[in-house]
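Meet today's protein:

…
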Amino acid sequence: MARSETQAIPFYLALAGPTASGKTAAALEIARHHDVEIINVDSALVYRGMDIGTAKPSAQERAAVVHHLIDIRDPLQAYSAAEFVRDASVLIREIHARGRLPLLVGGTMLYFKALADGLNDMPPADAVVRAVLSAEAEEKGWPAMHAQLALVDPVTAQRLAPADSQRIQRALEVYRVSGLPLSHFHAQAAQTPASHSDSLLISLEPNERPWLHERIALRFDNMLAGGFLDEVRTLRARGDLHIDLPSMRCVGYRQAWEALESFWPMAELRDKGIFATRQLAKRQITWLRSMPQRHIVACDAEGALSHVLRLVHEAVHNKPLSDDQ
């Protein structure tokens, strides 16, 4: 979908932040004060059967507020940023038509950015090229594939970790399909005026990184205690899933899969899972810093929820639903 073809989208609220920053609690607090429907912006929450490891909103939370784009894919299926933009755009209009406010909540910053800035004509996924790349990576390892990416797209390689298999594979896939680096398409998008910017993006970011690290560790411990390994055992027992699928690459699931495959002790799984989650949070914060339109709320500060509500109240007051969008 080219950005020039993207229709304007009505006003929406967006609540972003790294994992464990308190997005769910803030979203539910917003819902207590405003008539909203929540649209999920987390690439892991779209998958059915992946509940514990994704910290999916509970049945009670989902009963209290309407949630969209949760449990819409089998773990065997992929879900792209283009599909998210299509689905979220339709939902935002439908929610407005019902006289409610769309509230987008999650930590997949690519989805937020794609919705706000539009998408360029990047080539779609190519299953054959992807399979070839997976076979090469199996033989050479992802650090070697990262080095290969650095030769053809140094800009993208610089921002990716050598073990970030999913993004390295996609960047190489784009290059092999189109002959152009992924950074070319991103630069093309940056040079095109956005089709709309009618949204409020609130970003929950900690002043002190140790605060977030403690919450990440507590969340992972709670996942383990809540049966996370049994959840992954159930997924493995299906027989049709494998570790290179986008669903199984999700942080926590990859580590749990490897732990079950290699008989890691629980302490090793815990350490690697927490470390991987910290790295995810670091990448999420880096993404957020590239979004200058965001309104930062220090999620580790006293009164963070009050700050969020003030921002929402001001935005809603200035953008009443009766406006002609």
